[in-house]
Each structure stands twice: as structure tokens, then as C-alpha cells.
Amino acid sequence: MTSTEPRRTGQVYLNAFLKPPGEFLAAWRHPHAVADAGVNIRHVIELARTAERGTFDAIFLADLVGVPLTSQEVLSRVSVVNDSFEPTTLLAALATATTHIGLIATASTTYNEPYHLARTFASLDHISGGRAGWNLVTSLNDAEARNFGLDSHVEHELRYARAAEFHDVVTGLWDSFDDDAFRHDQASGVYFDAEKLHWLNHAGTHFRVAGPLNIARPPQGRPVIVQAGASETGRELAARVGEVIFTAPPTLPQAQAHYADVKARAAAAGRNPDHVLVLPALSTIVGRTQAEAEDKIAALRSLLDPRVALADLAYRLGGFDLTAFPLDGPLPELPASNQSLSDQRQILDQARADNLTIRQLAEQIARDDRTLVGTPTTVADHIQEWFEQRAADGFNVIFPYLPDALDDFVDLVIPELRRRGLFRTAYTGRTLREHLGLPRPPSRYAARSEAAT
After folding, report:
1. What secondary structure letter does DSSP report for 26?
2. Beta-strand relationship, 182-185 and 190-192
3. Closest by alpha carbon to 247, among 405, 102, 51, 391?
4. DSSP element (H, E) containing 386
5. How far apart are the first and last CA of the chain?
6. CA distance 209 to 212
7. Sign of CA dihedral 7, 224, 54, 407
8. 20 preceded by a cis bond (ω within 30 of 0)
9. How far apart are CA 432 and CA 58, in angstroms?
10. Separation CA 289–CA 248 (nearest Å)
11. pTM
12. Of the listed ranges 33-42, 142-151, 182-191, 314-323, the one predicted with least confidence
């Protein structure tokens, strides 16, 4: 922000990143955790209701469609990748247990087909009364590829080319029926107006899809599109199609640069930058005092097995086996990751800058030094600074362990944000688009219909 640019005013957006029993790999071992949280529907419903009590904009669920390739000994000590609900199925259940909070699910464009996902998310939007969002991803690893007839993950640029066309097909299918197509006229026997049905007839590089979708247009017109691409190709896709952009910059200057870049790319793509919301990740552990917060994270870190920490580092670096290298030596030269280029670059930069050994880097990643550990004031100060300094429109709040970290955020941080006028005291809309201040997109056929009248 320049010295002449006024501080930003308004309110922040907050998504609750729910990964039961928490983001930390040993969270399931915490004495307050529900060990089978990933498949305990009653517990997950309580988490969702807690987030709704805090008036979060949305719940966000991540997903993989394969167990990462590592030793079974390591896998046997981790809960999240081994034992969790499929996210759209889970959100359909949560839709009936909540009334306002948005419901965002991750679904891969690499290992799905457009028609299936278009129908799934349209259904979720109808079931929830207009609260659905789709986190459009290209998947991460070779383990996922092997579940879909491939030996290795699809090459990066090809994945993103497929993703762009996948998005165009899905949004086209959502427009299969005009908003007022369905008459349900029992007397005349006319169920829908035939002139308001549109066949997609898409024939592209990656897909041939005739359509139409066999469900009415979603209540939001289209579920909210979420994207998290951080590579050059990923940023271009996010700027073209994303309405909520998830990021993970480690510092305020980097966050400001990324924020400005996303907004500029969106404008260059002919979009309103105000309708492209940037939400960096924010992992928090909150205590009523700093000492209390420090005790909480120390107790959590003590639960992590070193073998899991090393395997997690290897996974983040692109799935490369590190066991053949000396733990007290430097990271070897690594080929570019075909999983997440941005994650690999950040970790490599960190290791080189601090001259870290493999052991030190694994310990540092395991400690999760990016987690903000402090009082409600500390966390609120961070949120306010990043928002006012144009580094974020809000945050994707990550909870290292559940339910405690979510309870603490709702009971301690949310009241402080409300006191500062930075966050809502109650929901004022019913749909996710209304929560986020995003317009309801018209059908692509609307202009054609208006021109014909």
C-alpha cells in the first residue's frame, strides 16, 4: 500500500477449513480429539454448527482421491488421508443440519468428468438452498493417478488446459435450463417450457459433451468457483474463472504482491476485481494469554512421530524419497515437482535461505511455524493488518486440531473482530454469493433471449 493510499475499510470474509480431526498430522492423538472424526458424522455436524454459530461465510473441505505413496508404517500413523468422507456427500448431509453457512467442496478436474461434477454441484446447490461452492483443483500426486488407470500424474500444463475446458463445460451445463423454464403445470401437462432448454453440444480438445444437464439451473445461477493456483498457469486460470482465490503467502509483502497480481490479472481478463476475493490461509492456535497458547501448541507438537514428519516433507517436495539421504545433510537437488510447484519452491527457498538440513527442515515443517500462536488480540491484529493493507479480502482459517481450535476462534477471536467492526454479527443473506457479495451470474443464453424479444 502506498503512503497516499487510504486504509481499507469494510468487513473480512472467513472460511472454516475443516479437516477433522485437524490439519496437524497428529491431531487425532490429542486428548480432546474425536479419534474417528473423519467418519463421525455427528461430530462433523457439531463442527459445522459451531462454524455457523460464528457466522463463518463457508465451510471448506479439501480432498484427495488417493492415499499418498509412502510406507504403510507411516500411513498407519496418520488419520486424514486414510479415513474421511467424500466431501460432496458430506456437504449434502451438512446442508440439512445447517441453515446459512456456505458449503465448499474440492473436486478434481483431472480425475472426474464434467457432467458428473456439474450435476453433483447443481444438486448440492439445490439441496442447500444456494450455498454450494466448488473448489476447482487439478489434483496433486501419482497415487491419485494410479487409481484412474495412469502410472503417473498428468503433466502440469496439460492438467491446467483440461481444467480450463472442464470449467467451461460445467458452467455451460449449469445453464441448460433458463431460470424460469420449469412450469410444473399439472393442468396443462407442461412440465417445462421447451424453448427454454439449451443443448450444450460441446466438442473440444478434452471433452465432447452434448448436454443438457438433467436438473434445473442452480439457485445461485452457478455455485461459487474457488481456485488456488499459485504457478503462472494456475494464476492465469484463477484470474479467468475463480471467484474466491485461496493463497498461502508467508509474509505481508508477498501477500500484498500476490493480491495485487490476482486483481490485475482478473481486470486484464475483463472481470471486476472486486468480484475476485483473495483469501490467504491462516492457521491459528488461540489462548486467553500468550503462555496458554504456547502451551497448547507445544502439547500438540509433542504428539507427532518423526517418521511422519519426514514423510510429510517428502510429500510436500513432490513425493520424492528422502530416506536415502543423510538426515543431517542438505536437501539434494530435486527435479521440478509435478504435484504442487509453488509448495516445492517455497520449501526449497526456505531450506536454502536458512541452510537447513533435511532433519531440521522436517522438524520445522512439522512444527508448522506459520501457525499464528497468540491471544485473540494477536490474531485480530494480523487479520486487520492484512485486510487494511490490501493483502487479503479475508482468510481461509485452518484449525491445527479440532474441536478446540475452532471453539477458541469462534469464542475468542470472532467477538474481537466484531468489536472492531471487521466481521458480521449475523447473517444478512441466505446464499453463499450473498455472504461474499458476489453477483448472481446470468445464463449465457439470457442476452440471446433478450435480443430475440
Report:
1. T
2. antiparallel
3. 391
4. helix 376-388
5. 48
6. 9
7. negative
8. no
9. 7
10. 26
11. 0.88
12. 314-323
